[in-house]
Amino acid sequence: MGGEIAFRRYAEGQHAKDLLRLITCGSVDDGKSTLIGRLLLDTGSLPEDVVRAAARDSERWGTNGDQLDVALLVDGLQSEREQGITIDVAHRYFDTARRKFILADTPGHEQYTRNMATAASTATAAVLLLDASRGLRPQTLRHACIARLMGVRQFIVAVNKMDLVGHDPAVYAQIVATTREALARLPSHEAHFVPLVARSGDNVVGRSAALDWYTGPTLLGLLETLDSSEPEAPELRLPVQYVARPNEHFRGYAGTISGGQLQVGDKVVALPAGVRSQVVSIDTAQGPRQQAAVGEAVMITLADQLDLGRGQVLAHLAAPPNVGTRFEAEVVWMAPQPLVAGDGLEFKFAHRYVAGSAARVVHRVDVADLGAHPAMTLGLNDVGRCEFVLAEPIAFDSYDEHRATGSFAIIDRVTHQTLGAGLVRSASRGRLIAAPEQVTRPQRAAQKHQRPAVVWLNGLSGSGKSTIGAALDRALFERGHHSYLLDGDGLRQGLNRDLGFSPPERRENLRRAAEAARLLADAGLIVIAAFISPLQSDRDAVRAIVGAELLVDVHVDAPLAECERRDPKGHYRRVRAGTLREFTGIDAPYEPPQSPDLRLDTLQLDLAAAVDRLLAYLEADGCLATA
Question: How many Cα atoms sit within 13 Å of 77 on the Cβ side?
Fold first, then answer.
């Protein structure tokens, strides 16, 4: 009986303790695994058999002579022990009289940065380790930047290996000053500093005589007093993970509540579908409930039999998420191939996958100074801000308000590998796609008695794109339709005059042209765009920006020899003379479209016949309706 009472009191005490989720991060070989091993050992958090096994392994793998190599207490993979590095993320659980901890030991090597970013996404605090003999390094700042990006606001900067600098307080003071100055660029955060020697345990759990000039708390003392509370999203968010349909009489929507509370009787809206209903029942693994809160997995039924699929987000009517296809986000790029504007990508928001692309790279963070600098691409392990465009609308929030609906993964559409992680920054609270008073594209088009379209004419220089585009524009005008011609040369003299002809700048030229075409189509116009669009990836990016429902992909086709014979602008002569380089079709690639909506062979068709073909296509497609 006494044992049961003691156990119950112990369980109640454990339940009463708060929980701190933290990570250790920093550059390779700065001592993260050693620090965690020492922390676990000195708090009595390891079973004796684990310590004995580590002692045996120290004889084989250890780097501390005859002494116990405490890093082996956490480096579990054989490859980690052989190389003396951390590769995978290791989670450790321990507690003290004041608090419970979940600690993630993350790798320091650049090639494993993605592992660190994943661990940081669930952390409240970070122990940022650095080697006193080496000082602040770029990877240390990269980890600090990523941790703050992922929502970590509290940092403990552990200045390790003070024994290598003779426990010199002047060295410590200089490192503190340098690190504070560098971290000052991070938005709203707290930084605490502690000097220590992880190998011997100085200032980890107990105080150190060798560092008696330091009068602040030990590392454990700081960990026990940090604020462990995490801001909770007050608005309801329930991403639908699974739709249960065992028979025609039951339809349940299952998922985990990521924000707010849900009660039977609540009126909710499912987004991006935009349909409304009322909650009839809430079921959990423990049985029916009248209400449920953040973190609980539920199966709910609604008053209406709504055809909602995986990835819809349920919210209260008064506080919905944003719905749209465009947003800005902070990105951690994790792939060897760079992120380039216009490349086709796939995005995973909660439980929904949607195609899209990067419309532009806004800036890249330089880990040397944590400053934001203009960039056109992001490389491996880069952190930056990008604008993205999706092929269809999704429901999302700002990451600062809702982690679950404000974060996403970027995926390769061919290999399905994860390329990067993103956090939405530009969402506006409670804004839906279109307010009732907003004039819509169909309304503008109906006023003009036509259906808008973007006729994208692509082909080699000299194939006849601009000539056909101008003739089509004139023909539409004479028929009473509202159209506008966008020509590559015209845009390069104005909107795009700051761009050169490098591959990234050519992609940006097409991106801006596609954005302009989309805006004109939103105004109800039939837009004619004549551009050399050499690569299929370029044309896919245009389709993602403009929208598949608007785009008419037209291949203006003529053999290279014929285009060179025509040479209306003299470009081919300059190429052959060696004064013009990287010209499409000669020394730069051109990928003919495999399945365009329309192909115009200008070797066989004269100008009038080509325009007639285009008009017939637009008429059959319903674009040229009359009053």
Answer: 12
Question: 71-84, pLDDT tens digit by residue?
Answer: 666 655 333 334 44
CA–CA distance, 343 with 272 (Å, rounded to integer): 25
pLDDT at 353: 93
**To the nearest 10°, the Cα dihedral for 496, 497, 501, 507?**
-10
**pLDDT per position as a tens digit, 262-298:** 999 999 999 999 999 999 999 999 999 999 999 899 9
Other Cβ atoms within 10 Å of 443 Cβ, number:
10
Q: What is the pTM of this model?
A: 0.61
Cα 272 from Cα 286, distance rounded (Å): 30
**For residue 618, which phi and psi values (nearest 5 degrees)?**
-65, -35
Q: Considering 33, 533, 537, 595, which one is annotated as catalytic?
A: 533
Q: Are 554 and 456 in contact (CB under 8 A)?
A: yes
Q: Is the peptide bond before 239 cis (omega within 30 degrees of 0)?
A: no
Q: Which two tokens stand for residue 334?
A: 């994790």
Tokens of 396: 């999302």
Domains of the chain and any CATH numbers: 2-225 (3.40.50.300), 238-316 (2.40.30.10), 322-424 (2.40.30.10), 441-620 (3.40.50.300)
185-193-129 Cα angle (round to 5): 80
* Region of 26 on the Ramachandran plot (φ > 0 left; ψ -120 to 50 alpha; else beta): left
Pairing label, strands 418-424, 344-349: unpaired
Residue 200 known to be catalytic = no
Which class for 412: exposed (0-12), middle (13-18), buried (19 or more C-beta within 10 A)? Answer: middle
**Number of neighbouring beta carbons within 10 Å of residue 241:** 14
Distance CA 174, CA 181 (A): 11
Looking at residue 32, its pLDDT comes to: 85
Give tens-digit pLDDT for 127-160: 999 999 999 998 889 889 888 888 889 999 999 9
